[in-house]
Fold these 2 entries.
Entry 1:
Amino acid sequence: MKDRNVGLTVGVDLGGTKIAAGAVDPGGDVVTRVRIPTPHDPDRIAEAVAEAVQQVRGGWDDIRAVGVGAAGYVDADRSTVRFAPNLGWHDKAIRDIVQEATGLPVVVENDANAAAWGEFIHGAGAGHDDMLMVMAGTGLGGGIISRGRLFRGRFGMAGEIGHYRAVPDGLPCPCGQRGCMEQYASGAAHTRRAREMATADPARAARVLALGDGTPSGLEGHHVTKAALAGDPFALDVFARSGRWLGQVLADLASILDPSVLVIGGGLGDTGELIRRPAEIAYRRALGGGEHRVYAEVRTATVGADAGIIGAANLARLHELLSFPAAVL
C-alpha cells in the first residue's frame, strides 16, 4: 500500500528529446516515474510537462509541489525560461502554465543546476559545502554549490560553463559564439574526437570501428567506452584527450571558485574512472599555483540519471515548505 503521508514532490527533467518525471520522497527516493517524448511543437511542450506531472500524481494524495528542470536559461524568479534553443522557447512562462494545469505550486530551474543540487544533497557532493558539478553530456553544463547554497547569480543564469570561450576563433557553437568549451569537453565533443581520430588512422581504430558499422561516422560514444574497458589503446587515447580538456575545465573553474569537490556528471561521468582519472591528472597539472594549493577531490556522479528529477523535486519541496530561504539561493 502507498503511504499517503510521506509528503511527495514531483521532479521533472525536461530535455530536447524526453520528459522524465518522478514523485520523490523526502529521502530522495523516486517512488514512481513516467517518461514521455518531448513534443516537436514548442507550443505543446509545457502542456506535455503538465501531463507528465498528472500521470505521476495519479493515485497519490499528498503531492505538494512540482520542480521543473529545463534545459535553458531560467530567470531569477525561477518562473520563466528566457531562452532554450533545444526546446524552441523564448520567454516561456512555464511556471504559470504548469501551475494552472495542475493546481500545484511550481518552481523552474536550469536542468544542470537541478542535477547538481540532486548530486549535492544525495550523491557525490555529500559531506561538502562547496561543490562544482560539470555535466558533460550532449552539451556541457554545470552547477555551483557555494557554502551549501545553489549559486545562481544575480539574474539566475550562473553556471553556464559550456559557453565560456576557451579557444579564440575556435569551433562554432550553437550559442552563436566560436570556441566555447562545450565544443571541446562535452560528451558530443568526445564522440566527434573519436570519429576524427578514426578517420585519420582507421587501422589503429580498427577494434573500435568493428563495434559499430565499420565507418568513423558510425562510431558512437558507447563503442569507445566498451573498447577502452577492454584496454584498447586507441579508445584509451580518446579518453586521455577528452580528459585533458575536461581537466582544463575543472582547473579553470577551481581557480575562480575554489570548491572542495569537483563532480563529473553526464554521459562522460557515467564512464567512471575512464574519464575521472585523466581529468584529475589534467586538472592537477593545469591548476595555477598547484603545489601551493589544496587540490579539490575529483569524483564522478553517483546519483546518475535521476539527479535532475531528485534535485528539481527537492527544490520544489524547499520552495513549498520554506519559500526558498537564503540558505539555498
Note: The first strand starts at residue 8 and ends at 14.
Entry 2:
Amino acid sequence: MVFKVINEDENYTLTIVCRENEWKSVENKYKKYINSRIKILHLKDKELDEEAKNADVFCLLTKPSHYWKFAMPMKLFYYLSHKKPIIAVKGGIGGRFIEENNIGYTCEYELDSIKNKLKEIYEHRSELEFKFKNMNEVFERNTWQQRAREVKDQLMKSNF
C-alpha cells in the first residue's frame, strides 16, 4: 500500500532498504509502482546506517495479524536507535509502543488512512521536532544496559 501512496503523490519519496534476495521474491508484485521517487537499496552495516540518516520518518506499516498483536517488531528498535519518528499500524504492540511514547504516528492499514497520515506529517513537519525529542528520551530508557538494570532492580526487590 505504501508504494501506491508514494506513487500517486509527488510530495513524497520512499527508500526501501532490504536484502536483494527478498526484494527479488516480491519485485514483480511492486514493479508497477516503482518510479523515480521510489528507491530500492540493498545495504548493510555502515552503508545502511548512513542511509538511515537521510530519513525523515521510518515506516513500519505491516499488515495486521495475530502475531503483531504480541510480537514487537525488531525493526522498531533499530529505528529507535536512529532517533527518527516511526509510522506504524494501529492495534499491534509496536503501534501501541509508538503511541504511548509519542515517538511517531499510527494509522489503520488502509489506503486512505495511510494517505491521510502521510499528508498530516507532510503538512505539519514542525511536529517532527517534538517526536525527535521524545525519541532521545525513549531511546535512553530502552537501551540493553537500561533493560538489564531494570531486571536487576526487579530481582533485588523480590529478594531473588
Note: The chain has a mean pLDDT of 90.
